[in-house]
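## tool: complex_structure
## caller: assistant
## args:
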Amino acid sequence: MKISIKWLREYVDFSPPLEKMAERLTMAGLEVGGMQTIGGEWYDVVVGMIVRVEPHPNADRLRLVTVDLGKKQPTVVCGAPNLIIGDKIAFACTGAQLVDDNGKLVQLKPAKIRGILSEGMVCSERELGLSDRHEGIMVLPADAPVGVLLKDYLGDIVLDIDVTPNRPDCLSVIGIAREVVALVGSKLDIPDVCYDETGDAIDASASVEVLAPELCPRYCASLITGIEIGPSPQWLQQRLISSGMRPINNVVDVTNYVMLEFGQPLHAFDFANIRGNTIIVRRAKQGEVMTTLDGIERTLSEDLLVIADKERPVAVAGIMGGLHSEVTDSTTTVLIESANFSRAAIHRGSIKLKLSSEASLRFEKGLSRTLSLVALKRAIQLMQQLAGGKVARGIIDVYPGKQQRETILLSAAEVKRLLGMELKVTEIVKTLELLGFVCKQTMGASQIRVSVPWWRTDISCQADLVEEVARIIGYDDIPTTMLSAALSEYEPVSAINFRREIRDVLVSCGFQEVLNYSLTSLEMMSRLSPDLHQACPKPIQIANPMSREYEYLRLNLRAGILATLGRNERHQEDSIRIFEIGKAFLPGPKDLPEEREMFCAVLNDAPAGLFWKGKPDPVDFFVAKGVVETLLERLGLRAEFEPDDDEDLYPGRNAAITIDGNKVGVVGELHPKIAKAFDLCGTAYLIELDMDRILLLADIIKKYQPMARYPSTTRDLALLVDEQVTYKQVYDIIKHSPLVSQVTLFDLYSGEQVAKGKKSFAFRIVYQLPTRTLTDEEVDKVQQQILGKLAGKVGAALRA
Amino acid sequence: MLLNQLEELFSGACDELAKLTNLKELEDWRVRYLGRKSSLIQALRALADLPLEERRSAGARANEIKKALEASLEEKQKELERGLSSSLRHGSLDVTLPGGKIPLGRLHLTTQTINEICNIFVGMGFQIVEGPEVEREHYNFEALNMPEDHPARDMFATLWVDYQTETGEKPMLLRTHTSPVQVRVMERTSPPIRIIAPGRVYRYEATDATHEWMFHQVEGLAVDKNITLADLKGTLFEFARRLFGVDRKCRFRCDYFPFVEPGVEVAIDCLACGGSGCRLCSNSGWIEILGAGMVHPDVLRGVGIDPDVYSGFAFGMGVERIPMLRYGIEDIRLFYSNDIRFLGQF
Ligand SMILES: [Zn+2]
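## result:
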C-alpha cells in the first residue's frame, strides 16, 4: 500500500521525524518497505502563470510563451497545445533536472529553437516524473502560489507499506492514520460527510435484490443524476498517481479515491445501461458470458458471484466491472455500489478468472460490513462536489448479514500470562482506547470488557487484544527471559542420530554430500532401466506441476544422483564421490504415501587427482564394496554380499547386500547403457541402501572386547582351486576352524603359473587363543585339518 | 699391569679412534676402552693391589690416560656429529613439493546449517522430531488456523499431490512449511513440549536468485503452563547470539502468521552493512531471519490442549538464507544444483 504523507497528514498530525514514524509503524506490524520522495529532483522548478502566448516567427507548431514567476517574466519556446493565459504551470529554469523521453534524468540547458533562444521550459507531467503524460503541459490548480518552488507546493513522500493479510483496514490512508494516532498519541481528524439530497427518492428509481446473501452480506447503493463527466482536479489526480493508480474521469476517480481513503472498493455503473433499473446480486449461471472492463470476454460459472441487471451480468462482484455498464463521457446518471462480499467468494472468483484487482485484493481479506455505508456517503459527497448532479433521496441498504457486535473480556492476568510482562489495567485500557477500542472495567476492575471498533475485522479473542497492547507499547519493551518450564519427556529418535552417523562415515570416506530435488520427470526416471520400472509402483504425480521437469515424486534416489554425477563430471576430471540421504515416495495402503528414507552413493573410476609420486589405485567394484563394508562395520553390522541382477547395474558385477538374510541394498558397477543415458564419461559404481531397514537391524550398542594377551602364530597358505570356487567358500571354511582368529586374503592369481581352469588364493592366517600361548604342534595340526576340509569341500590343494 | 702396557693401550686406542667414521663405531670404541669391562678401567681397579710406590706412579698415569681418552672421545663425538648432519644434508627433500592430500568429504551446506541450528536448540532442551513431506491439507492449513479461502493461504503457493487412497479422497500436498509438525506433535504428546523439526518444504514458485521451489526450514515449538512472549524473545535472542555471534543486534517486531497470536518477526542487523542500509537489507539495516509467535488459542484447542491452562510459542526459519547471509552466496539455486565446486567450499 502506497501512502502519501501529505494525504496522511490531512487526518493525523505527528511530530516525530518521518524515519522515526516509519520505524514505529514497522515495529507495530506495518512494515515500511520503502520511502519515495516525489519532487526530490525539482530544484529549479517553480510555480508560474502564463501571461502571454505569441506565435513563433519561424515555426507554425511552436509558440512563444511568457511566464510570470513573480520575480521575473521569462519567455520560452513551447510546443504544447494547451497554453492558456492565466493558467498556473510548472516552470523549469535552466539547470533543472528533468525526465527525458527515455525516462532518464537530464539537466536542462539553454537552447536555440528555430532561431530563438529559450532559457527554461514549461513542464509536462512526464518531464517532472509524475506520470507518463506528455500530450501537453501540466496545469496546476488555480490557487497555486506563483513563484513558489514546485517542490514545496507539490512535493511529497510516499511510504510503501507492506500490509499483512489480517489488516485490510490498513489498505487505506485512514487505516494507517488510525495506527499513527495510536503510536504517537495524537488525534484523528476524519472529514465530515455532508451533502444535499436534491433528487428523487431512490426507491422510485432503482432497486437492489440480493439473491445470494451468503456471499453478499451487505449491498449499499446510491444514485446521482445529471452528472457531468470530466477529468478530476489536479489534487485528486495527484493523490491517485502517488498511490499508484491511473486517473480516468471524475466519477471513476472518486470511487478509487474513496477506496484508497477508507479501504472500501466501490463501483460506479452507468445507470442508463442497467436494464430494468434493478441490481441483482446472484451467482452466475453456468456458461454465462460477459466482457469485463479490460475488454476480455469471460465465461462464468455457478461458483462466481455477479452483479446483474434484469437481463445480464454487469460486473463480476468485487473483482471487475463489465464493459457495457462502464461510466463513459456520455454518462449522466451513475449508480454507486458500496457492498460487502464474502472473502471466500472473491478469493475463489479471482483464482478462477485469474484476475485480481485493487478491489478483489481488499475484499478477499474480509472487510468490515459497517464500512460499506460509511464509504458510500463519502463517495456521494465527493462525486457531487466534483461532477455535480443531484443525489437521490435516501440510500439503498440491503443488509442480510447484519451481525451483533461482540465484546471480549480481557484480564490483566491474561496479558501477563502471554506477554510475561506486568501491565496495569489502566495502561491496558489506555492503549486499547488509542486504537479505538471501547473499554469498560468490570469485576472489581480486574477485568475489562472490550468492544472492538467496527473497522477491525481481525480481533476475536483475548490473544488478539494482547497483541494489540504489546505492539502499541512496543515489542522492545517486552522483557527477555529464558524458558523456565519443565523439559519434555525424552523421546529417542534413533533415525536422526543414525543418519548423522552414516553421514559422518561417508564424509570420512571422502564423499561429498549432495541433496537432489524430491520432484523429477518421467524422462529422468525413464533413463533408468525400464524393466525395473515396470515392476515399480507408479510414481505420485503433482496435480499442478510448475513444469514437466518437476512433475513426479521420486521413487528412488538413483536418477537424481546420477544426473548430479554427470553434471559434475563436465568440469571435474578427478574422481567424484557423492552421496545423498533422502526420501523416496512410494504409494502405499496408508493414508499418506510411504516416505522411505534411502541412501545412495556413486563414485566414478577417474583417478583421485594427479600426484607426482605416481598414480593412485583405480576405483573399482571392490572400492565401492569396501565403502559399504566400512559403513556397516561402523554401525556394528555384518553384511553378506551375494550376486544380484539389478537391471541398472552391470551383469555379474553387482551384489545384493544382506543382513541376517534381509536384503538392505545393492552395490555394483553401473550398466553401460545407464552410464550412457546419464552422459557419464566412464564407469561408475553405485551403492544403494534402505536406511529404514538398516536402522531396524542396526545394533548401535557397542561392547568392549579385551585385547589379546598371548602371542599369536601366523601362517601363510597358498591354495589352488577351480575357477568357480568363490573366495567366500574358502574363507568360511578357514574362518570357522578352531584357533583361527583372523584370515586375510593377500593374493589372488590365475594365469600361466597355474594350471588352466585353476586359480590360486594366498591367505595369511592368524591363530590365537585368549587363554594361553599356542604351540607350533597345535597350529600345525589345525592347519592340516583345515587343508583336509578345504580339499574335501572345495577341492583345494596346497600350491606347490 | 705395567706402565708400558698402559702406554700401548693408550696409543692403540688413539690410533683406532682416529679411524672411526660413525657414532655406532664410536660407541663400540667407548665400551671397549672406557666401559666398565674395558682393560683400562680394570687396570685402574687392579691398582689397589699394587705396592704403594708403583700404585702412585701407575695410578697417576692411568688416570691421565683415562682423562685423555675421555677428552678425545668427546672431541671425536663432536666431530662425528658435525659430519653426520652434513652427510644427512645430501639426502634432503624439496619440502615445497605438494603433499599427498587425503581426499575429504563434506556435508552439504544445508545439512551443516541444520545441524548447527539443531545443536543450539538441543542445548536449550529442545528435542528433534520429523514429519512427513507429503502432508494432508488439514495439517498444513486447517489445523494451523487457515481454513479454505483464508487470505493468508496466499502466502503459501502450494504444490498439490494427485493421490487417492482407499480411505477416500483427502486433499494432499507437499508441505509448504514445517509447521504441520507442530500439530502432529501436539496431537500425540501432552505438555510440556519442547521440540524442533527440520526438513524439506516446497512452494509453487518460479525460481530465481532468491527463490527456490524446494528449500528447508526448522520449526520450533514449546508448550507448557506459563510460557510467555518474553520467553520466546529470550530463546530466540539467545539463538541468534549463538548462531550469528554475541555482537549481533536483534530486532523483535510485530508480524502476522495465522497460527500465532501475538505474532513476531525476528531480524538481525545487516551482516553486510552493519545496519546503515545496503542492497542486501533493502536499505532497512535489518535482515529478517525468522517468524514466530505465541501459539494461537484456536490451534491449541484444535489439538485438545486447553489454551486457558497452557500457552506456547512457535517459530520457523528458512535454512538456506542463513549461509547465504554468512558467506555472501547470491543465488539460492546453487544449493540444489549440487556443483561440487560450490559444495566443496564449505
Ligand atoms: Zn545492509
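## assistant note: Chain A touches chain B through 97 residues (CB under 8 Å). The two ends of chain A are 93 Å apart (CA to CA). Handing back to user.
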